[in-house]
Amino acid sequence: MQTTDVVDENIKRIGELFPNCLTEVKDEKGRPQVAIDFDQLRQELSKNIVEGPEERYQFTWPDKRNAIRLANAPTTDTLRPCREESVDFDNTQNLYIEGDNLQVLKLLRENYLGKVKMIYIDPPYNTGNDFVYNDNFDQDKQEYVHNSGQYDEQGNQLVTNTESNGRFHTDWLNMIYPRLKVAKDLLSEDGVIFISIDENEIVNLRKVCDEVFGNQNFVDTLHWKKKKQPSFLAKHTAKVMEYVVVYSKSFNKLEKLSIDTLSDATKKVINISNQECLRHFKSGVRVKIGDSGIIRKGRYRIKTMDVEYLSDIPYKDGKTLVEVDVIARFSVSQEKIDKYIDEDLLFITANSGLRRDVSEEETNNRKAITDLLLSEYGDNQDSDNEFKALFDAKYFDYTKPIKLLYNLAKSNYTENQIILDFFSGSATTAHAVMQLNAEDGGNRKFIMVQLPETTDEKSEAYKAGYKNICEIGKERIRRAGKKIKEEHPEAKDLDTGFRVLKLDSSNMENVYYTPEEFDQRDLFEDNIKSDRTEEDLLFQTMIDLGIELSAKIEQTQIAGKTVWNVSDGYLMACFDEAVNETTITEIAKQQPYYFVMRDKSLANDNVADNFEQIFNHYSKDTIRRIL
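Request: output the structure for the sequence above.
Response:
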C-alpha cells in the first residue's frame, strides 16, 4: 500500500554495479539501513574528481535537490473510484483523475510504467499572473507522506507566482522538474512528450528536459501560431507564436512523427539513423518498378540509405511472387512490416527505396511535422469557438484548439496507444482523442489528470454551477462524446466513456504503516478507514499489484459473498465479512493469479487455519495477500 521508493531502487542498481560502494548508516530512529558511500563512488566514476568549488557546467537553482527528492519519494495516497461521475464505468478504457498531478503520476507509475506512447501537457506558463503548484519543502516526514506539503492554511494548493517574487523562476522549476522526472518513467521506449510553452520559460524548460530526458532525445521545437492577427498590445512586438517542445524517451526508437500533410518520404520504413538489420517480407508485397519482371538481388544506394535484397525478387502484376529477405536500416519492427503488408501499405522498389504507401489524393502538399509552422493547427479563437459550441459560454482563457492536439496525436502513428495529459484543464486532449478515433477507427485511450482548482465565485463557470475545473473538464468530455457519436454513426464501438478516480489519502489507518508507534490495544483495531468502500480497497489493490486502472471489473456472488473479478480472473478479491471455507474453495477453484482479502473477512480461526491448505490444494500458484 505504498508506491516504490525510487531511492531504494537506485541504491540497489548502484550496488549491483559497484558492491564496494554500499555501506550502512542509521536512520532517524537508530535503525541500520543501506546507503551509498559517495566518496567511494566518485573514485569509481571519475579519473579526476569534480567536487567542491571547482567550476563545471551545470544547471541548478535553489531547492533543486529537494525537487529531486520530491520526485523520488514514495506516496501512500490512493485513487478512489467515483462511479456516479463516470460514463460507462464498467466498459470504458479511458480515465479522468482528479488530484495533485505529482502524486497521481507516482501512482500511475505503478500501473503504467513504460506503457504511455504519448504525453501532452500545457503547464502554467509562469507569466506572472498564472499559478504554479506550491511544493513546500519545509515539513516533517508525516506531513510530507500524507500531504506532500502542497496546501496552504486555507486548503489552497496553488499560489500566484508574481514577477515580484524573488523565486519567480525557482518556484516554476521546482514545480515542473519532479513532474517531468516521474512522467518520463511512464513513457514507452518509442514514446514522445509534447510540451506547450511560451517565451517566459522555454529556455528553462529546454534545460530541464535536457537533464530529465537527455539532450540526445530532443526532437524539435515546433512553432504554433496562436492568433490569426497580432493584437499589437505587446510593448515592442506583436506576439503571435507559442512553442511545442518535443522530446522522445529514446530518439533511435521513436518513429517519424507524421500527419496527413506529410511528404511520401516521411513514410519510409528505412532510416539511415537506425542500425542495419534484416526484415522478412511476405509474398504478395506490392512492387513499384516498371513492368512485370524481376528485381535483381544486390545493394541499392537510395539517397542516404542502403537497401540490400538477398535474392532476386520475381513479381507479376505489381505483386511479389516469393517471400523476400531485405537488409536495411529499419525503424519499425517485423510485426509492423507484416501489418503494413497485410493492409497493402508497403511497396518495394529498386530505385526509390522501401516506403509506406499513401493514396494519390493524400500526396498533395505534404510536409513533415517538424517542418511545419503550425499555422493551420487552429488558434485561440478557434478553441474559444469550439468550447462555445459545447457550452454556449467561455469558461477558460487561452485553451488549445482541438486541431492542434488532434494532429499531434495523429503524428504518433500508432492507433492503439495510451495518451496522457496531466495538466488537462478543459480536456481538449480527451476531445481530440475521441475525434481522431471516430475518424480513423483507432483505439487510443486517454488519461486526463487535473487538480480540482476552484473556480472564482464571480466567474461565469461558477455561476453555471461548475465549482472547480474538473467539473468543467468532465462535462466537456460528456458533451463532446455525445456530439462525436452523433456526427459519426458508423463509429459504433467508439469509446467516449471515462472512469473518474479521485486522489485521496491511503485507505489504511496509520497503524498499518507504523505499528511500532502504537500500543498493543491499537493493533487490534481495524486497520482500514471506516469511510472506505470495497471498491476503494479494490482500486488500491490494483495500484499495489500494477494492474491497469482501466481493467475490466466484474462482481459475482459466491456462497452469498461479493467477489471482485479483475481482468478475467487475473485478480480476485473478497472484502466481505464472515467469509467461510465454501467461498474460499470456490475462489481457489477458479485459479486466479492474485487473491486478496481483508484480515477481518475470515469467519473464524478454523477458516484462517485452512485458508492456505485450500489454496495449496486447488491453486497453489495463486499469490495470496491479506489487508
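The CA atoms of residues 23 and 35 lie 5 Å apart.
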